[in-house]
Amino acid sequence: MENILAKREKVDFCIEEFNKKVRNVSADLAGVDESRSRYKQLYPFEYKKHVEINKHILHHDLDELIEHLKYMKEKIRHDETFLASR
Question: Residue 35: what are its φ and ψ, rounded to 5°?
């Protein structure tokens, strides 16, 4: 039972982190949240440059998210091995 609860907690944490990163990326791309808008000071650039900048930001954030998911998968696998050996 403990094993299932530990897994569920890790999955929930992972989902929360995923949702947080997706919300941040969406806000950056939309420029909605002025405090988080990473291209706020780049207004003189043409729109095409904004799109390119946002694509780079999005790719970076997605790479970061994928790394986080890989870490969580490895952590769960490690914990399963540890619990099985007890």
Answer: -70, -25
CB 38 within 8 A of CB 57: yes
Token output for 64: 């970061």
What pTM was estimated for this model as a whole?
0.45
- pLDDT surpassing 80 at residue 43: no
Place of tokens 């694509």: 55
Q: What is the C-alpha to C-alpha distance for residues 48 and 57, in angstroms, rounded to an integer? A: 14
Which SS3 state, helix, strand or coil, does residue 43 take? coil
Which pLDDT belongs to residue 20?
81
Residue 85 is encoded by which pair of tokens?
């050996």
Q: Are 36 and 24 in contact (CB under 8 A)?
A: yes
